[in-house]
């Protein structure tokens, strides 16, 4: 979501030849994480027999979106951008309710440090480098649609490399996660020796 938000201007310019809606995309990018969590947690609740809970939570989220849209779109400083803000709030509400329900139903608990703080730090690191790369590329490559395509591809490659490196430097990935990959056992051993993964 950080990468999409940071590269909203070149992405839209590359796809549509204009960046008029960059502000909306920058806000909507923050809905990605909540949409993903809604999908995963809804599946968990349905598998646990709580079939109707995700539906109830979606109804609540829809109510939040309606109220938020009415409030924010009516604000001159936001206008249509308020629709994007209300969408983010909608999915955040559903995700929060789903996560709470999953924790109550399954008894699952997670580490805030490992599951929230570290990924956020990695994302911020990626975002800072991506913005810097975009500013450099904007001065190097020509303008227009072709230039936007080149800038987008270069910055996406930089963002992916930085996030990949940050994930292992912060030791977010566990040894068991690596083992699930093809030839993961051998790869996990190598990475463990170099201190890149933890048990």
Residues in β-strands, percent: under 5%
Rounded to the nearest angstrom, the radius of gyration is: 20 Å
Whole-Å distance between the termini?
28 Å
Uncertain runs:
none
Mean pLDDT: 87
Q: How would the global form be characterised?
A: flat
Q: How many helices?
A: 10
Query: The biggest beta sheet, please?
Result: none
The helix/strand class is: mainly alpha
Order of helices and strands: HHHHHHHHHH
Count of DSSP strands: 0
Describe the structure using short key phrases.
flat, 199 residues, mainly alpha, 10 helices
Q: What would you note in describing this structure?
A:
This protein is mostly helical. Helices cover 78% and strands 0% of the residues. It contains 10 helices and no strands.
Question: Which helices and strands appear, and what pairs or packs with what?
Answer:
Elements lengths: L1 H5 L1 H9 L5 H7 L2 H17 L5 H21 L7 H26 L5 H29 L3 H26 L5 H5 L4 H10 L6
Helix pairs in contact: 2-8, 3-6, 4-6, 5-6, 7-8
Quick summary:
With 199 residues, this protein is mainly α. The protein has helices at residues 2-6, 8-16, 22-28, 31-47, 53-73, 81-106, 112-140, 144-169, 175-179, 184-193.
């Amino acid at each position: 979501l950080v990468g999409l938000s940071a590269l909203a201007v070149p992405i839209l310019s590359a796809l549509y030849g204009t960046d008029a809606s960059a502000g909306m995309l920058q806000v909507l990018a923050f809905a990605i994480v909540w949409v993903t969590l809604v999908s995963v947690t809804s599946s968990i609740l349905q598998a646990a027999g709580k079939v109707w809970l995700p539906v109830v939570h979606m109804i609540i989220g829809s109510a939040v979106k309606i109220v938020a849209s009415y409030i924010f779109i009516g604000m001159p400083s936001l206008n249509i951008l308020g629709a994007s803000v209300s969408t983010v709030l909608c999915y955040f509400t559903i995700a929060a309710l789903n996560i709470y329900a999953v924790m109550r139903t399954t008894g699952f608990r997670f580490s805030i440090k490992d599951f929230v703080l570290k990924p956020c730090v990695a994302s911020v690191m990626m975002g800072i480098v991506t913005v810097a790369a975009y500013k450099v590329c904007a001065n190097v490559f020509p303008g227009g649609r072709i230039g936007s395509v080149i800038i987008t591809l270069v910055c996406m490659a930089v963002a992916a490399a930085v996030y990949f490196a940050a994930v292992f430097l912060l030791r977010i990935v566990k040894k068991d996660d690596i083992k699930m990959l093809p030839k993961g056992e051998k790869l996990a051993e190598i990475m463990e020796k170099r201190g890149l993964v933890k048990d």
